[in-house]
Specification:
- The chain is built from 21 helices and nine strands.
- Mean pLDDT is about 80; it is low at about 1-35 and about 505-545.
- The strands form four sheets. Strands 7-9-8 form a three-stranded antiparallel β-sheet, sandwiched between helices. The chain has a two-stranded antiparallel ribbon with strand order 1-2. A two-stranded antiparallel ribbon has the order 3-4.
- With about 550 residues, it is mostly helical.
């Protein structure tokens, strides 16, 4: 039986131009302690293991470590260290004191405080107590009432899953990937703080979704407020800030070893990218972590190529609930992911033998788009819900901060009001007796009775880009495209038609893989193992099948 490549000798010739593990000097702990896997229960650590933990978290001053050894401080004593002990240890800098106390608090998360959740996709998954604190807030629990696939539930009865369970899955997978990198490449110096922040970003990346998920920020907001460029990522950043402040979580974060001033910024950047408008002259636009940890920004929301744990979870979860086969194995991607230096940046790379698994990922994604996400009836129902929301917008009021009133379209400006905006607004309109909501209510009743807008046809244009202004002209052109020699029983009006532009995967994935993967050169055909050899690194290339749908409103 042939051995796996990972079991073969790693002493192979390398090509000088190959991407490689970042050349930064490994921390002293890596050299002094070859076995870096510490027991999960800090109370069992001996003095040397405590020193190892401190070195891994940036405390490499030999004099401080020697004093820990002299005083024989073991893991069982860590909970009792305070300012007076730091005086004895001669840690005088206020910043070093704060950092050391935060580091010690981070070590005190015991297995007894970890919560276990039984997930239908990933099985029994564990969550750090800080993650549980975040989950048990009104802002996060709101995701229980937002359908993952919006109007697709009216087409696929099994698609009843919500943003809540997807967020749990992404938080779990983010932890799996960052832990795998930390275990296999200790020279990356991934700290406990980094791991916790990545998990929080995965958990909170979808906090900003509105009713029926992408229908809200993809259809409703652009029509209700065309002057506002708002996406759910921005909503997630705003909602996370609101979640932390309204639940007073900063002291809790400090208790578990985070530094809110730095780590909240880092979490937000993982969700939405660089905050503010970075200058084009800045070589590194992020503030939360230095350039050497660029790879951490590619775990939850990969801006480089779109391959991230967010998609890995919803591929598996959506296929499970839709009844669509999923041939992609995300566990292999996690197992064979490594960080290499490519173009002077550290990137998460995939083993080149995993190319067929990546092909399966693209195939799964294409199947989901063609069979579910862009289903013609699902799109029609999203259009009808959007129309109902537009008609109800002026008459629905949500109370925000300081008692201010907001409408459906303006609730995005106030997170207290936005917290109250979920899929339940559908039933609120449907069962309302307010005569001002009659028009909106009639549209929703048509959905309930399956009296839907009629899908007419679709066409695939050429390579030319379809601008937003062109879309606005299409309904009028369709209404005027009536034959002259055939009498019509009804007059066709522009407002009777909806022309919808479909974009499959804009800015998300790759199809031209040959041009965007760093492969081993012909002279080194056998390279393919990390951390000292080749891997494939994907880059962003916008692609997408563009379809134009035409639907007619029923009267």
């Amino acid at each position: 039986m042939q051995r796996d490549d990972s079991e073969q000798s790693s002493k192979r010739p390398r090509c000088d131009s190959s991407p490689r593990t970042p050349p930064n000097t490994p921390p002293a702990a890596v050299k002094e302690f070859p076995n870096l896997r510490l027991p999960s229960d800090y109370r069992t650590w001996d003095t040397e293991q405590v020193c190892c933990f401190l070195q891994l978290n940036g405390f490499r001053d030999p004099s401080v470590l020697d004093r820990f050894r002299e005083m024989k401080i073991t893991g069982s004593l860590l909970p009792y260290l305070d300012e007076s002990h730091l005086d004895v240890l001669r840690v005088s800098s206020l910043w070093e004191r704060k950092k050391l106390l935060n580091c010690i608090r981070l070590s005190k998360t015991h297995v007894d405080t970890v919560k276990v959740i039984n997930d239908p996709i990933h099985g029994h998954i564990e969550f750090h107590p800080l993650l549980i604190k975040i989950i048990d807030t009104p802002q996060f629990q709101r995701l229980r009432y937002i359908k993952q696939l919006g109007g697709a539930y009216y087409v696929f009865p099994g698609a009843s899953h919500n943003r809540f369970e997807h967020s749990l899955g992404v938080g779990y997978l983010a932890g799996c990937l960052v832990w795998e990198l930390s275990e296999k490449q200790p020279e990356l110096y991934i700290s406990e703080r980094d791991i916790l922040c990545v998990q929080i970003a995965g958990l909170c990346h979808d906090l900003g979704h509105g009713p029926f998920s992408h229908m809200f920020d993809g259809r409703f907001i652009p029509l209700a407020r065309p002057d506002v460029n708002w996406k759910h990522e921005q909503g997630s950043v705003d909602m996370f800030e609101h979640l932390v402040n309204s639940n007073d979580l900063k002291p809790v974060m400090e208790h578990y070893g985070l530094i809110p001033e730095e780590d909240i910024c880092f979490i937000k950047e993982q969700i939405a990218g660089p905050l503010g408008s970075p200058s084009k002259y800045e070589s590194w636009p992020y503030k939360g972590r230095p350039k050497e940890k660029n790879f951490l920004y590619e775990i939850v929301a990969n801006k480089r190529n779109g391959i991230d744990v967010d998609k890995w979870d919803y591929f598996a979860r959506d296929c499970h609930h839709l009844g669509i086969q999923n041939s992609f194995d995300y566990k292999r991607c996690i197992k064979f992911a490594r960080v290499c230096e490519v173009d002077d940046r550290t990137h998460i790379c995939i083993r080149n033998q995993e190319i067929w698994n990546l092909y399966d990922m693209f195939h799964t994604r294409t199947s989901l788009h063609r069979r579910a996400y862009q289903h013609k009836v699902g799109n029609v129902i999203d259009m009808m819900i959007t129309d109902a929301f537009l008609k109800a917008d002026p008459y629905i009021e949500l109370t925000g901060a300081e008692g201010r009133k907001y409408h459906l379209s303006t609730a995005i400006n106030d997170m207290e009001a936005f917290t109250k905006l979920t899929d339940n607004i559908f039933l609120e309109i449907l069962y309302s007796t307010d005569p001002k909501l009659d028009a909106a209510r009639e549209i929703l009743k048509k959905i309930e009775c399956r009296n839907l807008y009629k899908f007419i046809s679709e066409t695939q244009p050429g390579k030319e880009k379809i601008e937003k202004e062109d879309i606005k002209k299409f309904p009028e052109e369709v209404a005027n495209a009536k034959p002259n020699n055939i009498p019509l029983e009804a007059e066709l009006k522009t407002e009777d038609f909806i022309v919808d532009r479909e974009r499959k995967g804009e800015g998300e994935m790759e199809t031209s893989m040959r041009d965007n993967i760093d492969w081993p050169p012909p002279a080194c055909p056998s390279l393919g193992i990390w951390p000292t050899t080749w891997a494939c690194a994907l880059t962003r290339n916008r692609i997408g099948d563009r379809l134009v749908h035409g639907s007619m409103l029923n009267h």
